[in-house]
User: What shape does this take?
Amino acid sequence: MNPLDHGQALYTRRQFFGKSALGLGTAALASLIGKEAWAAASAMPSMRHGVPGLPDLPHFAPKAKRVIYLFQNGAPSHVDLFDYKPKLRQMHGQQIPEAVLGGKRFSTMLDGQTARPVLGEITHFAQHGKSRAWVSDFLPQTAGIVDDLCFVKSMYTEAVNHAPAITFLLTGSEMPGRPSMGSWLTYGLGSETEELPAFVVMTSRDKEASCGQIFYDFYWGSGFLPTKYQGVNFRGSGDPVLYLSNPEGMSRAVRRGLLDDLAQLNEINQQDFGDPEIATRIAQYEMAYKMQASVPELTDFSQESEATLAMYGPEVRRQGSYAYNCLMARRLAERGVRFIQVMHAGWDQHRNLNTQLKIQCDDTDAPSAALIRDLKQRGLLEDTLVIWGGEFGRTPFLQGKIEDTKQWGRDHHPYGFTVWMAGAGVKPGLCYGSTDEFGFNAVDKKVHVHDLQATILHLMGVDHERLTYKFQGRHFRLTDVHGNVVRDLFA
Assistant: This one.
């Protein structure tokens, strides 16, 4: 057989359509994605030579170089932890006024419960620091750093269930499929390191497994951005990242040569097809090779002082714990990782508020405060933005029966809740905004989720209206068509 005929006989259907798409298909595609996307793609240097961002970013001088988001899945009860409301104690057990409820919707877990008795805080509040911020006695370590924190007590959102609300806060949409905040920032700004991913995610949950919160991959997904911008999930047991170790009998030198040859083949394919996922594949192979050296050093706590380890609490040496992940967050930050997402599930107290809230606070209070202290004493807090909070708050009224104290709970509450921020660019010792006397509705200096997103991007030197990506004929952004920067939070 003629060698040319033999080659054509081996030509697969996928190869045929892939090659043919470079003809008329390329012209059609160009009209859809626009000149900007082509220019960005052609200007993007090989990921093997660094982790750059877009050429025109940052838009202005940033206050922060990196973000650590301590995301509390399940929604901490703001009225039991930060938002002190004497009215709740005064009206404990009485029906919350209909004028306050205002026909608001809640989760289906309240279906069939006609009563809405006010539930006073189950903790004890006190004012702390020079800022005189109110903090529950369940959070003594957080109370000790209030003058470093900026409380936003007038947050509100739109979704009433966990997954849509978390997705909304992290991606700007209740529906999965949009890029997450970390993906947007690493797409726009790149990374300060070539040895570790620009966007790292770590998850933990309460040991009691008290709620069924699931960590969906789209919480750190890249959506329609190239997948090299999605978060890398460090596992809570065993090797933090799978398949980093070389197979038995393969030396590092042999691995290096294999990757170089593989990269050449992939670059040929990239020239033929122009598929950004081929560039991702090249970048991920190269990152995996570098992480073979960087990850063992990253996870080695032997050089940490006993005082530092003690500050994070007794769980700090247990891989997969919240304390372990908080110390890892500091180590990732000082090694140049751009966005670190620490997610801890277990705050969903529908029927166990009197028991599980204290457990959650015990697990997370010391590590969260230790992270702030640790960053501060190392000079890292000056250019690191730390955010603590959940997807919404909890209802000021009771879920359950007032006489059944063992099953007291609070339902999901999107209409007013609290987050705190610390570090680069935010005003320490500030309590911003407020809810009404019941802690029900945000009423003063209201901050929507899109406003928070716009503010975070601004602190990173990014104009949230200008960081866009054209997809399916439309320019998308993290804040959709909403969002205002809350400049009153800035130092």
Remarks:
- The longest helix spans residues 353-377.
- The chain is about 35% helix and 15% strand.
- The two ends are 76 Å apart (CA to CA).
- The chain has two domains: 46-240+303-489, 245-298.
